[in-house]
Amino acid sequence: MSGRLQGPAAWLLVPVTLAMMLFILAPLLVTVATSITNTQYIIFPPRGFTLQWYCKALQDEDFLAAMWFSTVLALAATVGALLLGVPAAFALVRCDFAGRGAVSSMLLSPLVFPVLITGVALLQLFAMLRFDNTPLNMLIGHVLVTAPYVVRTTAASLSLADITLEDAARTLGADSWRVFRRITVPQIAPGLAAGALFAFMISFDNFPISLWLADAQHNPVPLLIFQMIASVFEPSVAAISTLMILFAMAIVMILERVGGLRRAMAM
């Protein structure tokens, strides 16, 4: 029996879906539109057409430094989230121990706990311990808020993995590492890819943690945009925001080509 909707119900969903997409994308479209205005201030609808604000943004040393720092920080946070999240997911799915439900809730709690409060708590903790290494502190904070995404997607993939294939490989003489590398990883690859994507984008766009832990020498892009809005709100801010949108879209497209994003999101 097919699960596809047919008849009037299917036609009714089309305009509803288009309306939802327009509602979601409208703020992004406004940002892109205001980045090409030839006025010295942000206005919508835009007046004229110019790319001078993109040239100004790409020549801004502060933006380039913030972009580099955000990218490196997001990559490091993604690696850290994978190193911590994958073993945690294996423990939750493959091991039966007392308090597993409580541990699972604790690991996933950053998904629902206010990130702004998390940032304040981390600031107080690092101040109490006298940790003054800003990049390391920010990395710890970003891993804390991104690891649950890896745990969630990896656990979902593991729950659907065929354990009998792993048992068959062990029966044929494969050691644990070979079983993991050749049998388990290919099965959970969509979950790993989705978790890595979420971790990277959440870290790259994170504002609350960076607001409390960053300093003048280590300024990520979201915090830079916030500072620019507070000082000079000109179309170059919209141009920087548009570049971030394009960067995020490029990451998604690369993952789709390499790992199959639609299959990963279906987990």
Walk me through the structure.
This protein is an all-alpha fold and 267 residues long. It has one domain: MetI-like fold, CATH 1.10.3720.10. It has helices at 8-34, 52-58, 61-94, 100-108, 115-129, 134-160, 163-171, 176-204, 208-213, 221-231, 235-259, 261-265. The longest helix has 34 residues, at 61-94. The chain is globular, with a radius of gyration of 22 Å. It starts with 7 loop residues before the first helix and ends with a helix. The model is unreliable at 263-267 (pLDDT under 50).
Topology at a glance:
Blueprint: H1 8-34, H2 52-58, H3 61-94, H4 100-108, H5 115-129, H6 134-160, H7 163-171, H8 176-204, H9 208-213, H10 221-231, H11 235-259, H12 261-265
What are the salient characteristics of this protein?
76% helix; MetI-like fold; 12 helices; 267 residues; mainly alpha; disordered C terminus
CATH architecture: Orthogonal Bundle
The overall strand count is 0
- Number of separate domains: 1
Query: Considering DSSP H and I runs of 4 or more, what fraction of the residues is helical?
Result: over 70%
**Count of helical stretches:** 12
CATH topology: MetI-like fold
The CATH C-level name is Mainly Alpha
Let me know the CATH homologous superfamily. Answer: MetI-like
Strand percentage = under 5%
What kind of sheet is the major sheet?
A: none
Overall pLDDT score: 82
**Structural shape:** globular
From the N-terminal CA to the C-terminal CA, the straight-line distance is 22 Å
Structural class: mainly alpha
